[in-house]
User: Which sequence fits this backbone?
């Protein structure tokens, strides 16, 4: 089954500070001024599209990525190709760096994410052309890029997942409503769902239900909520054994959904797989350093649900 992943390719600069953000704020109630000591600073591979593709490749699914990258991405693209990820639809912008993300962590797993789009600003120019795909996910990207991708996927008859994520603030509410209306599945976490409601005056899952589409709301360590026109289901989240770093957990969850699509599994089973992959990822640092395989997923699956996942 052919899979298209639309989103970003980025370099993440990870900054680990000490104590907590709140403890280090010694200013007036209405101000915020922090001077943070960072004993750890390192650069890692990141980006929504690349993170999703990474987890899929570990499970033997080798998607196409459609994205823009900068003139600093040669080694990164080589790494993707070595993993089997297809990079033909990635366009390198020779006069620009790749998207740069600066992720600051504190000791209580608080996070501040600052990023500059750089090459991602040009993603609206891309098209998948005549290549046929059965499934696509449109993950956070430039606003124009996300709009074009959803429109093209629907015109091409591709089953499409829409995941606005942190890019939601760049879209207008009419654009958001249009994208949710067109997508076969829309995913948001609870803060994003509330933000959508504030912007548009309507709950995104009501739009999904009225158009016979699927809505998924992720609620962190609690559960994931699946809403269809016929019913609502809570899928418990696997409790993480060790919580190290949440960077890329949402992307790992989305990889589980895409695996389901390629295997024609039920939506419930796909969310369970996404929960397990996200739970594994949170036990490692950054977005692309976790290891998953069918054997360790089977072990977790049997413990959590009493059966094995992969035959």
Assistant:
């Amino acid at each position: 089954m052919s899979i298209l992943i639309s989103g970003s390719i980025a370099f993440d600069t990870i900054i680990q500070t000490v104590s907590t953000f709140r403890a280090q704020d010694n200013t007036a109630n209405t101000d915020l001024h922090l001077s943070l000591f960072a004993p750890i600073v390192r650069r890692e591979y990141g980006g929504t599209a690349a993170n999703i593709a990474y987890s899929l490749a570990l499970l033997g699914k080798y998607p196409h990525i459609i994205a823009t990258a900068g003139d600093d991405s040669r080694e990164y693209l080589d790494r993707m190709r070595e993993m089997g990820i297809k990079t033909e639809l990635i366009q390198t912008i020779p006069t620009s760096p790749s998207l740069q993300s600066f992720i600051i962590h504190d000791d209580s797993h608080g996070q501040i994410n600052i990023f500059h789009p750089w090459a991602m600003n040009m993603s609206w120019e891309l098209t998948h052309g005549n290549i046929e795909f059965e499934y696509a996910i449109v993950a956070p990207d430039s606003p124009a890029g996300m709009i074009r991708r959803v429109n093209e996927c629907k015109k091409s008859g591709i089953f499409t997942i829409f995941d606005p994520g942190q890019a939601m603030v760049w879209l207008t509410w009419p654009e958001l409503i249009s994208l949710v209306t067109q997508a076969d599945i829309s995913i948001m976490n609870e803060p994003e769902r509330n933000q959508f409601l504030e912007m548009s005056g309507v709950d995104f899952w009501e739009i999904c239900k009225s158009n016979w589409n699927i809505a998924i709301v992720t609620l962190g360590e609690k559960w994931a909520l699946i809403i269809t026109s016929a019913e609502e289901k809570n899928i418990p989240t696997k409790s993480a054994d060790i919580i190290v770093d949440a960077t890329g957990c949402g992307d790992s969850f989305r990889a589980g959904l895409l695996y389901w699509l390629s295997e024609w599994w039920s939506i419930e089973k796909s969310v369970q797989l996404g929960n397990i992959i996200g739970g594994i990822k949170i036990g490692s640092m950054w977005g692309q350093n976790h290891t998953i395989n069918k054997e360790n997923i089977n072990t977790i699956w049997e413990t959590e649900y009493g059966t094995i996942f992969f035959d």
